[in-house]
Amino acid sequence: MVKMKHADNAVSSVVGVMLMVVVVVIIAGVVSVFASGLVTDTSAAPTAQIKYVGVMDGVVGGVSEIGLVFENAGGDPIYLEDLILNLKNEATGKETSISYTDNPSSLYRNVMLAGETRLSSAFTYRFKKIGIDDTAEVANKPVNLRVSAGERFVVHADRYIADANSQGSVYYVAERGSSIYSDGTFKVSSRTSYTLVDKNTGSIIASGTLVGEIL
Questions:
Q1: Residues with Cβ < 8 Å from 10, sequence gap 6 or more?
Q2: C-alpha–C-alpha distance, residues 184 and 68, integer Å
Q3: How much of the chain, in percent, has pLDDT values that exceed 70?
Q4: Which of 196, 214, 204 is nearest to 99 (CA)?
Q5: DSSP structure string for 163-184
Q6: Is the pLDDT of residue 5 over 60?
Q7: Looking at residue 27, what is its pLDDT?
Q8: 6, 36, 168, 190: which could form a disulfide with 163 (CB 3.0–4.6 Å)?
Q9: How many other CB atoms are there within 10 angstroms of residue 158's CB atom?
Q10: Distance, CA of 154 to CA of 67 (rounded, Å)
Q11: pTM as predicted
Q12: 215/209 Cα distance (integer angstroms)
């Protein structure tokens, strides 16, 4: 009598391949769900059209207010607490970075220079929407820090020095911790370039030079 041989090896191979396919499908599903979650949670930079308007140098509401003024000329609203202003002196290469949380500096409280204006100590925030009282700025944050199309905001400078031959210079200092993080004097002219960056994404939402008017 001839004895039949069982194909145990063939069955084992098929089962092994099927198990591998199942594992691959499960891994692919997990990766897909994880990737979808990342895409959903990623914030997009606002698509606003931000333009530089000019330098503010004067007395507003009885206090000295100085700084660079920008306008949302169209598109998405922007939130001041999400912005970082970078300035660069194209002649010297000097750069300074200012964020909403960088309070105006108390570094300069001595005798003022000729033609100099200083930011009043009454201001506590570096970025401020035009028309909003500084002391009440955070009382209704979603509204007071949101700059919609047609609205303007100022990035307060620590001091402004007038120049008979140009629109003068602004001085910014960012004090972080117990030291100066960045500082510099910048001509209000085409010699200074700026970028406004969305800190959540690192995307540049506006750039240009400080060619504008005295407000």
A1: none
A2: 14
A3: 72
A4: 196
A5: -TTSS-EEEEEEEETTEEEEEE
A6: no
A7: 65
A8: 168
A9: 22
A10: 6
A11: 0.76
A12: 17
Tell me, what's the pLDDT at 41? 44
- Residues 126, 104 contacting (CB under 8 angstroms): yes
Q: Are residues 31 and 101 in the same domain?
A: no
58 in the same domain as 23: no
- The reply to whether 23 and 88 lie within a common domain is no
* Domain of residue 62, residue span: 50-214
Q: Are 116 and 190 in contact (CB under 8 A)?
A: no
Q: Which pairing describes strands 152-156 and 63-72: parallel, antiparallel, or unpaired?
A: antiparallel
**Of 55, 63, 215, 77, the residue nearest 133 (C-alpha):** 63
Is the distance from CB of 149 to CB of 74 less than 8 angstroms? yes
Structural domain tally of the chain? 2
CA-to-CA distance for 128 and 124, rounded, in angstroms? 10
Query: Tell me, what amino acid is at 78?
Result: I
Helices (H), 42-164: 141-144
- Nearest-angstrom CA–CA distance, 123 and 129: 12
Residue 35's pLDDT band (cuts 50, 70, 90) = very low
| Residues in contact with 56: Cβ distance below 8 Å, sequence separation at least 6, in sequence order | 65, 66, 67, 68, 69, 154, 215
Q: Is the dihedral of CA 163, 165, 168, 169 positive or negative?
A: negative
Residue 69: what residue type?
V
